[in-house]
Amino acid sequence: MSAVTVFGLCAAAAVGLGLYGLIANPQPLRKIIAFNLLGSGVFLLFGIVGRRGAAAGFGNDPVPQALVITGVVVAFSATALAIALLLRLFQIAGSTTLNSRAAASPRSDPSGH
Amino acid sequence: MLPPAPALVTTAGGFLLVLSIVVPVAGVLLAFALGERYVRQVASTVVPVGLAIAVAVLVLLPRSDGHLVYLLGAWPPPLGVALRADGLSAVMLATTAVVICAVAIFAATDFRPQSVEARAPFAFWILLLAIWGALNTIFVAGDLFTLYVALELLTFAAVPLVSLDGRAETLRAALRYLLFALLGSVLYLMGTALLYGIYGTLDIELLSHRVSADSGVLIAAALMTTGLLAKTALFPLHLWLPPAHAGAPAAASAILSALVVKGSFFILVRLWFDVMPGLPGLAAAQLLAALGTGAIVFGSVVALRQERLKLLIAYSTLAQIGYLFLMFPLAFGASGKLESDQALAGGLLQAVSHATAKAAMFMAVGSIYTGLGHDRITGLRGVARALPLSVLAFAVGGIALMGVQPSGASLAKELLLQDTARTGQWWWAVVLQAGGMFTTAYVVLVLSHAFAPSDQPITLIGPAPLSRDLAALALALCSLFLGLLPWDSYLPVPYDATSKLFGIDALSKLLLPVLGGAALAILLSPWPHPLGSSAAWKALMRVVGPLRRGCLGFGSLIERGDEVLRQWSAAGISLLLVSLLLAASMFAAN
Predict the structure, then answer these.
(1) Residue of B197, B242, B243 with shortest CB distance to A49
(2) Could you give all domains of chain A from N- to C-terminal order, each with its CATH number?
(3) ipTM, 2 decimals?
(4) Rounded average pLDDT over B253-281
């Protein structure tokens, strides 16, 4: 088994675990962590894609690395934004659940706003 | 459609594409640097400049063969990154500019510094410009990774708009929106990685020459499509949309509903029509349209059962998003490829007319909310006398949305109906007509409450500045007269399509949705009607009473189904199912 295959399987495992966590975990913080795991899997996939360019005689294909760096920055800002929202929600509501009645069924608030 | 020869040089006027991105972004940075005191001045400078750029693109595009290209740093793809604009981009750029202008005028009185919470106006103006920059990037981007970055920028600018007032409920809505949108964009990014791994380029035009029915490509296509559907909130992936759109301030809701969901829709159109027109196959397109039908039924029925006007419009957005996806199976030509033809023009026109009409309706509802202090449908009696201009703007927007001639929606419907006849897919004609009726139903429902006479005069609790209503009304009128514009230099609209709107059968095309819609409104709305005590209503109820009870039962069933589907785990499973079904149908087609 070549190194590329091993890393490919690792990427697949990270994507699978992240996807499961993002869908199945009820706590937002865990969802955020799962999103990061999922993202890491995708970045690893980009790394493998770059490594395969090495077969064509290059040392390494630089374009996927540039894409990954951009992707990491985007994922980092996404995490920061999500954490900021989560902290604010915790300060105001005292809990971080997403499935409160107010969120699940907006009709239950008779006063409207 | 493949352009004849890849144009790999910067065309004259290509710098306009750069300006369309740079100007709003420069506005954001400048507003940050100058601080809260000058944020409105910056916005009121950037907005007209941005509008002028969009107009310049519209003017220049037909003169340069319908394509504007700018190569960043003069490096041609695959080494460099190209910005491209075609007719679709120009139309969307112009729509965005017009809607943002109207919203900016509307919000000028709302988000004055020191009017509400100190930070909200500052944040609003910056986010408005950021959304504009992200959307323009989406419309002119020439490669899939730039599209990914623009899509993320759009989400990051849209999410804080949802929670602008900082209540716990809207923070929850924003967090749900962000997390689900991130799931969607990661799927899109994964597809991008696969495509790069197979072809070594992400440039749309180069990819369109290279793609073949490889298994990796089909998986990438299914993943990217699913991700974009989650961001567009197509049923059943709509868990985030109703609370997010209904909880935001009116000006923010208008932007979110009119423009933000169109961003990911536009990327999907690029992916299917430009990158891989031959790959998805008819079955996958039928699946998209079937989901769209689900969106129309669920969105409309639940909208008719809402008590709050803003939620009603949010659910109507859900239904209208479904309407946009009906074009996919109709765009298949005899060769089994997606053709950038009449159906695409119809779909895009629908997107444009929904953007203008829905923004106008959200702004009108915002005025009504500030005037009355609530937006309960049952409490709207007499509001037409108290706030005539707001109700007029809502009515004109609603009429444009339901497809009364000469609105953009009516032209779109005409084009799509012609294509159902051409391709022999009569079932989508049924859905198109039903969609029009449902739209009419909720517009008629609201108007019948608003125009009902009130016993006691309404006291307005908030100010009703004229400029707000005029902005909403202008946008609604825009949408109403969209069908008369000369589309053929930008979109593949047949020359005689506009004239067909006013044929002899125009009256029947008008009456069918109106009568059907009124019937649906009576049958499906559970709220007491303002004329409920009149003799005519009682006589009508004696005839249709049992039927109405049956329909209300059906409606509550749909509403409960919608609540189940909006649970996080149900939406996650739907997401996986949709991607599996898409992949399966794409594999079957190749």
Answers:
(1) B197
(2) 3-99 (1.10.287.3510)
(3) 0.88
(4) 91
